Amino acid sequence: MIQTPMVALVSVGLWLMASRLDAQDGKPALLLAWLSRVATFVFMIFYTVLDSIGGSGLGALLLALAFFVAKRAPLGALVLLLVFGWELQMSHTMPHGPIAFAALIAAALWLRRGKPAEA
Fold first, then answer.
1. pLDDT, tens digit, 9 for 90 and up, residues 34-55
2. Contact between 96 and 90 (Cβ < 8 Å)
3. Which of 67-84 are b and which e, b meaning 16 or more Cβ less than 10 Å from the residue's Cβ?
4. Please, is 115 exposed, middle or buried when counting C-beta atoms within 10 Å of its C-beta (0-12, 13-18, 19+)?
């Protein structure tokens, strides 16, 4: 968790370093400095997004546990939520991502039917 704010600080630092270049350094240097800024911004956004994917996986695991404890969902749907959370925590790339989201869709459809778990 500490890495997420550190990425933001590193990005700010890179942005500030690039801002030290000015017109006296020439157009090629300014162009490269602006490319650095754009790349830094894109990196900061995507790093944060990718970390949030892991949080979604953990959230699904906790959601499944809450439904299980409350006995408010069928066990099969909860297992699918566990599969979603596990696969997404493993990776969001092929084959984990597609498996994860297929399990989430199946769990959502199953839960939509509204059959509670047996007591």
1. 999 999 999 888 887 877 887 8
2. yes
3. bbeeeebbeebbebbbbb
4. exposed
